[in-house]
Amino acid sequence: MTQTHRVYVRTSLAEAWAAVISPEFTRQYFFGSAFASPPVAGEPFSSVLPNGMVAVDGRVEAVDAPHTLVHTWNVHYDPAQESEPRPRHRVASSTGVLSTWSDGSGVKA
Question: What gap in Å lies between CA 58 and CA 75, rounded to an integer?
């Protein structure tokens, strides 16, 4: 199953990218979590809660700042979701538009 979520943001491309990867922004909107370190293509990543617990982890598949971030997604904050298949998330942005896709089949922007 493919889910597509589109969010239209009236902002600059740099500000949209910062909202996706910057701890100052992500902590406000992702339950206090933030990337433990900047995402790097081919490397694992984790998003950590203020108490140090890993909320989400996965592998970064592609980074083309400030346009694209693709990574797998494994939830740890909800035991019921931990056993589910790892979806693939793609965050793509262009001037004024930030879109996210969650799928296992490789949707292309």
Answer: 9
